């Protein structure tokens, strides 16, 4: 966004922990209940409107503990998928060896 005198203002990218996201969404709920507009609330929370909507869709009614557990389950799921993929490769290799085509 350009402002007078050639200055550019950008929002610095930063990562938020799930706990910080939940805290900001609660603050947003409070500000919106007081009659605030989404644009003003996002500006107050120092995030973009798109980020607010993405967080709301992803973390909507969750509590901090729920988000922490979700992240743990996602990590475990990724680990298990890697294990299954490795096993499939081993099975394919053993099939090729059993055929004698190596």
TrEMBL record:
<dbReference type="Pfam" id="PF01527">
    <property type="entry name" value="HTH_Tnp_1"/>
</dbReference>
<protein>
    <submittedName>
        <fullName>Transposase</fullName>
    </submittedName>
</protein>
<dbReference type="InterPro" id="IPR009057">
    <property type="entry name" value="Homeodomain-like_sf"/>
</dbReference>
<feature type="coiled-coil region">
    <location>
        <begin position="63"/>
        <end position="97"/>
    </location>
</feature>
<dbReference type="InterPro" id="IPR052546">
    <property type="entry name" value="Transposase_8_domain"/>
</dbReference>
<keyword id="KW-0175">Coiled coil</keyword>
<dbReference type="InterPro" id="IPR002514">
    <property type="entry name" value="Transposase_8"/>
</dbReference>
């Amino acid at each position: 966004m350009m402002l007078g005198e050639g200055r550019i203002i950008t929002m610095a990218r930063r990562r938020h922990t799930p706990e910080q996201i939940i805290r900001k969404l609660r603050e947003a709920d409070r500000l919106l209940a007081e009659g605030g507009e989404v644009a003003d609330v996002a500006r107050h929370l120092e995030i973009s409107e798109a980020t607010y909507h993405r967080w709301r869709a992803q973390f909507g009614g969750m509590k901090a503990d729920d988000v922490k557990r979700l992240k743990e389950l996602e990590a475990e799921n990724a680990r298990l998928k890697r294990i299954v993929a490795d096993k499939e490769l081993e099975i394919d290799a053993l099939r090729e060896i059993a055929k004698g085509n190596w």
